Amino acid sequence: MDRFAQSTSHADGVGLKGVKTRQRISTRLTVLIIAFSSAITLIISIFQLIADYRHQRDNLNATIEQIGIFIPNISSSVWSFDQKQILLALEALVQLPNVEQVTVTTSAPERKWIAGRTPPSHIVTRIFPLTHRVGAQEEIIGTLKVVGNLGAIYASVAEHAVSILVSNGLKTFLVAIFMLAVFRRLVTDRLEELAQNVVGLAPQVLRAPQPTGREPHCRGSEDDELDILKCAFDDMKQQLKAAVDELRDSRHLLQSIIDNAIAVIFVKDLQGRYILVNRRFKELFHIEGDELIGRTSYDLFPREQADALHATDQTVLQSGHAMQSEEMIPHEDGMHTYIAIRAPLLDEQGKAHALCMVATDITERKLAEDELKRHRNHLEDMVKDRTAELAQANARQQAELAERRRTEEALRASEQFLDSIVENIPNMIFVKEARELRFVRFNKAGEDLVGYMRQELIGKNDYDFFPEKDADFFTTKDRIVLNSKELLDIPEETLRTRTQGERILHTKKLAILDNQGNPQYLLGISEDITQRKHLEDLVQQRNAELVIAKEQADAANQAKTAFLASMSHELRTPLNAILGYAQILKRDRALNERQAAGLNTIQQSGEHLLTLINDVLDLSKIEAGKLSLYPNAFNLPAFLQIICAIIRVKAEQKSLSFSLDVGPDLPAAVRADEKRLRQVLLNLLGNAVKFTDHGEVILHVRRLACSESEARLSFEVEDSGSGIEADQLEAIFQPFEQVGEVQRRYGGTGLGLAISRQLVRLMGSDIEVDSKVGRGSRFWFEVTVPIEAGLVAPVTAQTIVGYAGSRKAIMIADDVAENRSMLVDLLQSLGFDTADAINGESALQQAIESAPDLIIMDMVMPVMDGLEATRQLRSVPALQVIPVIAVSASATPEDQAASLAAGANAFLAKPIEQAALLQRIGELLKLEWLVETPPPTFAAANGAAPLVMPPQEEMAHLHQLALVGNMRAIREWASQLAARDRRYGPFADKLSDLATRYQSKSILELVEEHRHNPASA
């Protein structure tokens, strides 16, 4: 009793303490909730006010922009000095929202019209020029000045601010009260209840009898609820351990019993995972140990068979009753039949918690049953054959009796059938007797067409219904048919009907002869072609219009093609010098980090501009149907690695994860248009990175089918980006279309996906897309490519620094001085002697005088172009062996073919890629290049080494630099860190790379992530 009283008192004390704790927690929680909610409310209110101001400001700007549509009318009124129209237009403009004043001012003579009033402050002003076309030029005759009132917008936003703050404040208070009530209900009350329950349970646990020979697991204060609870839990733990040991022994006994059974036995859990199998099951499917435990039928059987087994299992579990079925299971000697009994295993509440199956091989029994069934079927067939013979004999007798009746009925049915056909044919059918050409038969379609009932027509001729001229025409044709006894086809004849006016008919007439071959009747079939004739006339008229439109479109396309070719040449020419010098300067080892980054920016920007030019040209080729593929052999794994290296840089700039998922059986080398395939993949991957802010981008490459000569490859780009609306999935493939959020529509021309789809279609496939808004997108396509038997070795990263052997002389012919200078600098740095010419005539003269080892010839030059110069060069016997590399900013296949036909040995498009140029020079001159492989970076040399972080005091200093955003100081700090200790090399390299690309946000995230954990990352 004393102990019980003491425990009760202790419980009361704990309960009181719980109440006080609840009160403290509730008070603190209330303050925190109100403070946090108030801060959130204030931030939301600020954003709402900003959005309201921007919305009203945008509406004002849109209103002012709409005024632009009135400019032509106002200009016309100003030119004619129609003051009334000017004032009416100004008054109309002043009525627009927030437009306070509109002023029109003329140039000469200077005059001014004003409408509205000028607000005292906070205005926005826009001036539109007023023009008038004089001949082929437009002349400015005045201006239109529009003044908008921002003060009204400020006042509206201020009024809105009060209502927002009051509304959000009230919402915040109600949310705080609700959260406080929920917390007290779900947390503090339960803490108090748990403490009281533990104290009430403690005396019973202490008085519980201990097993003989075993001391209590732990001893603690009887007044300490936690000790009491711990002791109770420890005792339960020992009892559970003993029960587990006993259960393990029982399981081993059960496993031994089922392992010695002849039947196949297994147990699955509710998710279909195997949790117990016997030895016979393992022997049947050649399974070692417990490797099947935890797996499902899908890991053992084909998907179709696994689906059927899973459905049967679920049926048994849902019904709660055993079920017997026959199943076919493959053995080494073929398929065997098993009788399978599935039964659910129920718990104490009668609910199924597992599924057990016992299957017995009944193949031999089934074979015996099948043999018996075949023998029985054979006997039944013999009986049926004899019975059929008797039935046939009886049927023949009955058939002879019924044949006569059927013949008579068939004749009547045939006549009715023919009548039904004639009456339901949509064309007019009529029959005339041959002697006087009077109608003897008319169908329903003929009645509807001529407008007379057949009772009115029968016994009459054409002269009784039609004008004499028309009747003469019909009668003449009828006599021709009766005399010739041949079919007469009348393509067009006019019939004046009773109700429909004139109709145009296509009529065929045929004589019906008697047994002696004399005409007895005339059969006519007429089709009403009035509507068709009208449509044919319309079609002819439309065809004539289309011919004219096609001629105009062809002329426009030719003009567009010429314009694009000219613009391509003009844009590629300066790009040739820009990209060329960028590549030359990057070869300089004395460049510092900032200079190298600047050259990279120049080269990347130039290449981006070149990509845009190529996109426009590609679209023009697609529209003209002139885009072609040029397959070549290349190393597929190296090709994919190059693409991944390009995309990985873009992904890291946005702190995205990028990975390449490649199938294990990809061919090593294939033949396809490497350039176009790279263009498609880079476009799809670039879009994925562009429209993904968080998560990852994955490139999946799989081989779907393969033979000895070709493979079917699947390329799939998957991202976790913003996704695409279902109604926009087709629009994204249209030229110049950019969908999605406005802030994401930057960069590019909207041609990438349109061109990529056309390229994939040229490859014999199409791009498919599946997207969910907010969950990401998947783009994929499949192509069949030939497999290259010989492995195509990937190109290694090497720098050409010279060549072995005697010095070679190269002449550059180009009318642009910058292009000549760029090539001279490149070739002289590699040890070549150079000469230059400003046109084809000068190049031909210098070649005759000096006979260079190789000529780089521009195809478009004044005086004499490169094509003519190459032709004349090949006509000189002494110069025929000089290799010529043709270069041109016009890079169409036709230009390349024309250059090679003129005698050039190779063709390169401007801007010239220096690696390709040196490769062609080396092949034509049979040079042995002296190369230098760049030294590997620290990160590359050490593979995937962890990022070792410097001490915390160093990280604190770096954190301050990251907060300030001083990229130059961060690069210097990273260089000093790497020089001080090589272990910090990978971290310093990554930090320097981020600082070079001004990724301040990524640097701050990297530093904060590892600031307090400097060991490794």
Summary of the model, kept short:
The chain is of the alpha+beta class and 1017 residues long.
Throw out a few tags for this protein.
disordered N terminus, alpha+beta, 20% strand, five-stranded antiparallel sheet
What does this molecule look like?
The chain is an alpha+beta fold and 1017 residues long. Helices cover 53% and strands 20% of the residues. The chain has a 5-stranded antiparallel beta sheet. A 5-stranded antiparallel beta sheet has the order 11-10-14-13-12, with helices on both faces. Strand 20 and strand 21 form a beta hairpin. Helix 1 packs antiparallel against helix 4 and helix 15 runs antiparallel to helix 16. The chain is extended. The N terminus is likely disordered.
Topology at a glance:
Layout: H1 2-66, H2 71-79, H3 83-94, E1 99-106, E2 112-116, E3 123-134, E4 137-149, H4 151-207, H5 225-259, E5 264-269, E6 274-277, H6 279-285, H7 303-319, E7 323-331, E8 334-346, E9 352-361, H8 363-424, E10 428-433, E11 439-442, H9 444-450, H10 454-457, H11 468-484, E12 488-496, E13 502-513, E14 519-528, H12 530-586, H13 593-624, E15 632-635, H14 636-653, E16 657-662, E17 669-672, H15 674-690, E18 696-706, E19 710-719, H16 752-762, E20 768-772, E21 776-786, E22 799-803, E23 809-813, H17 817-829, E24 833-837, H18 840-850, E25 854-858, H19 866-875, E26 884-888, H20 893-902, E27 906-909, H21 914-925, E28 929-932, H22 938-941, H23 952-964, H24 967-980, H25 985-996, H26 1000-1010
Parallel strand pairs: 16-18, 23-24, 23-25, 25-26, 26-27
Antiparallel strand pairs: 1-2, 1-4, 3-4, 5-6, 5-9, 7-8, 8-9, 10-11, 10-14, 12-13, 13-14, 15-17, 18-19, 19-21, 20-21, 22-28
Helix pairs in contact: 1-4, 4-5, 12-13, 12-17, 13-16, 14-15, 15-16, 18-19, 23-26, 24-25
